[in-house]
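Record minuted for everyone:
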Amino acid sequence: MANVVLCGMKSWELIDAAPVPDSGAIMRLMRQGGEVVISVNHRELMRNTAHSSEDALAELACERLVDQEHSRLVIGGLGMGFTLASALSYLGPEAQVVVAELVPAVVRWNRKILGDFADHPLDDPRSEVYEGDVRDLIGHAPARWDAILLDVDNGPTGFTRDTNNQLYSARGLDRAFGALKPRGLLAVWSAAPAHAFGRRLERAGFSTECVHLWSRGRQVGRRHVVWIGRRS
């Protein structure tokens, strides 16, 4: 085991590391005591003790679904499984959730090391994993999905991989719009307000809503945003 310094402050135990496809970046799974962090090039993406906004991404989308019992959802980005677990808690037994995860190691971590944190949502028969780019998944499915939830990179202002920005571009939003059923929802987690992204959502034809959140809930932690767009 090797130790590295994360954010220049604490010494963390390196559990595992894996390359991020097509980026040259390295994703690391780190641990210190009861805290576990996923970072990219030593910049934190997520941790097991601060996931309120990830939970809320699914909550905000599922509460607005036309039919929670039979909905078909896509989640872009598995992370530590919290968004998936939250979505499954709102959906009926006939629903389906497909999680697109670009880094195969993240899927492996969730099946073993990280599984307990979100109560093993990948074991739920309603969930399915697509190992690949979420753009490819939604790009080949016209009017198929009731909701698309994106928690990829750092949101519309990402830093993990330049091609992630294409997901939030005008062309990417047009692709998401076409993949949704009428009245379908696009929900996007963002680390910052990203008002320019809200304007792109509107130009793509979505009616939009912006919800401000706290990473640790109850006005604790960092301020995050979830953008909700509904296909008219």
Remarks:
- Residues 52-63 form the longest helix (12 residues).
- The chain is about 25% helix and 35% strand.
- Residues 3-47 form one domain.
- Confidence is low (pLDDT under 50) at residues 1-7.
